[in-house]
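The freezer alarm interrupted the setup, so I double-checked each line after restarting. Inputs confirmed:
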Amino acid sequence: MKSFAFAQADTPETAVAEGVAAGRFIAGGTNLIDLMKLQVETPAKLVDISRLDLSDIEESEDGGLLIGALVPNSDLAADPRVRERYPVLSRALLAGASGQLRNKATTGGNLLQRTRCYYFYDVDARCNKRVPGSGCDGREGFNRILAVLGTSEACIATHPSDMAVAMRALDAVVVTLGHDGDRRRIPLSDFYRLPGDTPHLETVLRPGELITHVALPAPPAGRSTYRKVRDRASYAFALVSVAATVAIEDGRISAAQLAFGGLGSQPWRDPAVEAALVGHAPGDAAFNAAADALLAEAKGFGHNDFKIPLARRTLIAVLRELTETEA
Amino acid sequence: MHFQINGQHHEADPDIRTTLLDLLREHLGLTGSKKGCDHGQCGACTVLVNGRRINSCLALAVMHQDDEITTIEGLGTPDELHPLQAAFVRHDGYQCGYCTPGQICSAKGMMDEVEKGWPSYVTAELDETGELTRDEVSERMSGNICRCAAYPNIVDAIQEVWEARA
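Predicted 3D structure, all chains:
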């Protein structure tokens, strides 16, 4: 690990002031410390935000929840309000990592975790995300875990989070504090950048900008689930995951919110998928149309070609389950 | 830097990069916590921080000066074993023993999570927890790898302690 300057922040404002000057925020540290050991990340300064007063989950006026950025993943998953009103979020959190990691990893940090692409982690490999302009060894390499949606010439990495997939389906909003006290509310749909030719720039956060909360709007109507397909039954990243809420009225799908993990360069959501469902009777015709919409632009790179049919089958299985429709 | 570990105050002056695990082992001589992968994948380094289980290899010591840290040395002694330690012996819940301190610290933290009513990935209904079935133990302990594959006996040991205290 490269050495670093260390500062402990007492308030969000001092954290931002420290962070603006080439600082990297650290809270749970479960991803960042690992990347620092490997020298994938070599921050000049760490700003410890773990003692800030951002660990509460509050009711918001619109019937939603305001989640402090430092709420640990395990506490968020176990919160009675989340379990009752946003079960898809509880399920997604519980599908991720291990008990130890969920106890330390935070809500804000989970959103900002980095890809687990092997070539990003291997400092001897070429990786445009780690070293801009160096090339990508993933395209022609062992790309089984990598993305099939939203990729670019420069990068085919996946975003690894389960939590963020559920939050994307729930229309979560990232609340930040920036330089000069500037507060922003950034819908998760605008938060992540597509890799393009700058895959090292993953979000729209500005230097020093601190995530203080994640806001969930009032829960959507209908039933929800989080289905995760992975190489072992526990403690593994998703090959494909689906966070879904679906409501039915008068025999037709009246609302649908779906997001996908393991497929995209970011937690993936496509309005065309939902448009293929809403207004239609639940059944394989509509479900296949939704899968067609999701996968129209999907592109495999060899080892990960299997994700495309797997995503179709997983999506259809989730939709059958939520709508109680037989094959 | 100052630390509160197993009820005792410690002073140390480690490099800023020092993980909590390396602090325990290399600076304070508390070698019960083990370094397996050093990347948060194996669980051998599991300790309790303010009663919650974490991977001490993915924690910077400097960030835990105000916390109450409990290691395997703080759970029991050779003369007075913690019930989990005694149950692991009784059920042969190990072979080489390297993962055992992490398994036991993790099991302690895990049982406290179940007592708080926290669900797991395999809990059928999110509002209904408390039963610590074999599937629940396996899921909740999946962050602790045993390369000797003593898993069946580890589950037996944990279930016995859980049922005795419930």
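Quick read of the result. The longest helix of chain A spans residues 307-323.
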